[in-house]
Amino acid sequence: MNEWNRFDSRATLDQELARFAAQTLAEAIETRGHGYLVVSGGSTPMGFFQTLSQNQTLDWSKVTVTLADERWVAPDHADSNEALVYENLLQNAATSAQFASLYSGDETPEIGAATLDAKFSALPTFDLVILGMGGDAHTASLFPNTPALTQGLDPQSPHALIAVHPTTAPHARISMTLARLLRTQNLVLHITGANKSEVFEQAIAPESHATDMPIRAVALQQQTPLRIYYAD
């Protein structure tokens, strides 16, 4: 069963998600000395990033931040998720956090995935993974009807990372697999707008398929409970 957390404004959602993230990471630091946070790119999390970055009670030097996926562009590219994280999250109180990049600098994401797979497979269980969702029901860079999707959604995949070549979005990409994303203590889907809510409900309907709507695989899996943070 998915747990819906509905808010009357996006600003309130950002504040409450930032509070939950900070609390989760603080508990991880207290328990095992370090916290691991996986975030997603796009415009939706920017307010959350900026709010969380101002948390001065969290020991950011004991936090590692990484991404669920990345466009295969240099970190100084305008479309880089890494740049988005540095500009909006790793600011203010959060400048001492560590960042694990998904961009290796290799020529292709296939080479990059091979280069980085062992490193990301060896990372501990994450403390918090925050996913987004596109209007086509993709999450991370697990896009509908792409050759990489079967491997990406395989819950038994031995790989942490795969290369993706979406047909409906620019740039080749690298993405964490569903298997790696689900190795987390806490799993959140962060969505805003009535259209995203409708897409999600369509994805979990009996007649839908994960190959067409990949978020379905996240929503219906039984390994890690999903919390949905939502505001119109």
Count of beta strands: 10
SS field, number of helical segments: 8
Termini separation: 22 Å
Q: Secondary-structure element order, as H and E?
A: EHEHEEHEHEHEEHEHHE
Average of per-residue pLDDT values: 97
Strand order of the largest sheet: 1-10-9-6-2-3-5
Shape: globular
Q: Radius of gyration, rounded?
A: 16 Å
Strand coverage percent = 15-25%
Sheet of most strands: 7 strands, parallel
Helix content: 25-40%
Contiguous runs where pLDDT drops below 50 for at least 5 residues: none
Structural class: alpha/beta
Would you write up a description of this structure?
The protein has about 230 residues and is an alpha/beta fold. Helix content is about 35%, strand content about 20%. It contains eight helices and ten strands. It has helices spanning about 10-30, 45-50, 80-90, 110-120, 150-155, 180, 195-205, 215-220; strands spanning about 5, 35-40, 65, 70, 100, 130, 160-165, 175, 185-190, 225-230. The strands form two sheets. Strands 1-10-9-6-2-3-5 form a seven-stranded parallel sheet, sandwiched between helices. Strands 4-8-7 form a three-stranded antiparallel sheet. The radius of gyration is 16 Å and the shape is globular. The mean pLDDT is about 95.
In short:
The protein is an alpha/beta fold and 232 residues long. It has helices at 10-32, 46-52, 81-88, 109-122, 149-153, 178-181, 194-204, 215-220; strands spanning 3-7, 35-39, 63-67, 69-71, 98-100, 128-131, 161-164, 173-176, 187-192, 226-231.
